[in-house]
Design a protein that fits this description.
The chain contains 15 helices and 30 strands. The protein is of the alpha/beta class and 576 residues long. The chain folds into 3 domains: 3-50, Immunoglobulins (Immunoglobulin-like, Sandwich); 91-485, Glycosidases (TIM Barrel, Alpha-Beta Barrel), CATH 3.20.20.80; 500-562, Golgi alpha-mannosidase II (Immunoglobulin-like, Sandwich), CATH 2.60.40.1180. A hairpin with a 2-residue loop joins strand 2 (14-17) and strand 3. The radius of gyration is 25 Å and the shape is globular.
């Protein structure tokens, strides 16, 4: 066995193995090595014993020694797994710590059959890397390759991935490379890992002196999840905060190396970006001048849907009043247009030759719920009818649908911001900062949940017994039906944006999906002309076709199969 660490500007490095210190020998490129056998280890720099930046196992937390982990010892059963690509996918986002009362990988495995019955194809797991404390969202990770021990550690995550594959579910892991958390971030003690900071913490040195090994740190971490944990894809958090002026951006470098790994393992591997840039170059092929990522989140579509369904116009929502038709057609509402929230022009248009599946559409996600003051879900303030219309738009659009855990039954539980930093000063700083942030938006201090209180975690944990209650079961049946219809009708999963049309009639939208019309009514009862006879395939209320029009109750949708499958225009002047 040999221990290695990158510490380019140190004159002496020791490795402490099972309590005994050993000198390390300097090698090429700032790396140090020591051929020692043992189990628990830490690197001693200037008298301090620090965990391995590339640790795979932190059984005692992010400040303690690392433990040797042998990936080859896990007995996988997914040898027949050939992977799942993104085209035609339906993604389900979940947080291990609040998905079940157990808050573990093994607890989550017990609910996977529910996801299979729902009809999703991929499970997107919020970050599982090690962070300080027991409970947290995972975005304050500091040891990116070590699985959070309270969830079940590295073996627990492998059991989860293996169980997903056994059920035909792909696994996408959320990873954070744009910053490190505030407790246990020792990277800068080893070398020049950091360069500046952003809103969330220290950022990485991706293009300065000695940055080659820092970039290698990021890419190797990503490859490790895909190769060693059999993960099928990665969701890359807030890539707009990755400052990299290199000719080869780290995202493009990552895409190139993931493509090579995909060829080696013989299954598709997916990279999904979260980006605030409204720039589709991220998901444009490299031969077309892009970075070559597979997909990105479409926040503008969420914002337009949220405003249309809820009527909320605070924060960054004012720009999105009446924006739903345009955003459905063009993905980005801000495509070189003025953004009042940013006080500047923002974004660029999407090339309609790009397939729609490269953009994720959603009514809710962890950010859009959890970053609200009280973590309230859309279902807390919006009627069943409006929720149904929103779900129909998401699942019948040419984009890749994603839903957040519990959305499929309109869960009564909020999903609030929480953390559990053991350091009392840091805990108080997080508590005070959260309350001060929302006080600026008119919330009283007592109204903002205490993120450090364990009750906030319990309050945010799904209550699975409510699934069988009538009002929740009704929503679940609707979601199952929409997903089943999308999977059974190729028109609904068709990603070709140049064949997708949206007719706008104020309260009524009609999505043209081949020979299907998805008629969505957010207003009072209306007769919507179809231009041809048709048959209702699925509806959220008592819709019916009358001659060449569909009669829709207030706040409802209907998916109609036209007898004449030729594209027809809708004249809204005939509707009532």
């Amino acid at each position: 066995m040999s221990f290695s660490v990158w510490a380019p500007h140190h004159e002496r490095v020791l490795v402490r193995v099972d309590g005994h210190d050993h000198e390390m020998t300097p090698g090429d490129g700032g790396w140090w090595h020591s051929p020692v056998d043992g189990t628990d280890y830490a690197f001693v720099l200037d008298g301090d014993a620090l965990p391995d930046p590339r640790s795979s196992w932190q059984p005692d937390g992010v400040h303690a020694a690392s433990r040797v982990y042998d990936h080859s010892r896990f007995e996988w059963t997914d040898q027949g797994w050939t992977g799942r690509g993104l085209p035609g996918a339906v993604i389900y986002e979940l947080h291990i710590g609040t998905f079940t009362p157990a808050g573990t990988f093994d607890g989550a495995i017990e609910r996977l059959d529910h996801l299979v019955e729902l009809g999703v194809t991929h499970v997107e797991v919020l970050p599982v890397n090690s962070f300080d404390g027991v409970a947290g969202w995972g975005y304050d990770g500091v040891l990116w390759g070590a699985v959070h021990e309270p969830y079940g550690g590295p073996d627990g995550f492998k059991r989860f991935v293996d169980a997903c594959h056994a059920r035909g579910l792909g696994v996408v892991l959320d990873v954070v490379y744009n910053h490190l958390g505030p407790s246990g971030a020792y990277l800068d003690r080893f070398g020049p890992y950091f360069a500046g900071s952003n809103d969330w913490g220290p950022g990485l040195n991706l293009d300065g002196a000695d940055s080659d090994e820092v970039r290698r740190y990021v890419v190797d971490n990503a490859l490790g999840w895909l190769r060693d944990f059999h993960v099928d894809g990665l969701r890359l958090d807030a890539v707009h905060a990755l400052v990299d002026r290199s000719a080869l951006h780290v995202l493009e470098q990552l895409a190139v190396e993931v493509d090579a790994l995909s060829a080696a393992v013989g299954r598709p591997l997916t990279l999904i970006a979260e980006s605030d840039l409204n720039d589709a170059r991220l998901v444009t092929a490299r031969e077309g001048g892009g970075y070559g990522l597979d997909a990105q989140w479409a926040d503008d579509l969420h914002h337009a849907l949220h405003v249309a369904l809820s009527g909320e116009t605070s924060g960054y929502y004012p720009d999105f009043v009446g924006a739903l038709p345009k955003t459905l057609r063009e993905v980005f509402f801000h495509a070189g247009t003025w953004s009042s929230f940013r006080h500047r022009h923002h974004g660029r248009p999407v090339d309609k030759r790009l397939p729609g599946y490269r953009f994720l559409a959603y009514l809710q996600n962890h950010d859009q719920i959890g970053n609200r003051a009280v973590g309230d879900r859309l279902s807390a303030s919006v009627s069943f009818g409006r929720l149904a219309v929103g779900a129909a738009i998401v699942f019948c659009s040419p984009y890749t649908p994603m839903l957040f855990m519990g959305e499929e039954w309109a869960a009564s539980t909020p999903w609030q911001f929480f953390a559990s930093f053991p350091d009392p000063e840091l805990a108080e700083a997080v508590r005070t900062g959260r309350r001060r942030e929302f006080a600026r938006h008119g919330w009283g201090e007592s109204e903002v949940p205490d993120p450090i209180d364990p009750e906030t975690v319990r309050r945010s944990t799904l209550k699975w017994d409510e699934v069988s209650e009538d009002r929740h079961r009704r929503v679940l049946e609707l979601y199952r039906s929409l997903i089943a219809l999308r999977r059974s009708r190729p028109e609904l999963a068709d990603p070709r944006l140049d064949r997708f049309r949206v007719d706008d009639g104020g309260d009524v939208l009609v999505l043209h999906r081949g020979g299907l019309r998805v008629v969505c009514n957010l207003g009072p009862e209306a007769d919507v002309p179809l231009g041809a006879p048709g048959e209702v395939l699925l509806a959220s209320a008592d819709a019916r076709v009358v001659e060449q029009a569909v009669r829709l109750p207030a706040e409802s949708f209907a998916v109609v199969q036209l007898s004449d499958s030729q594209p027809t225009s809708v004249n809204f002047s005939a509707s009532s």
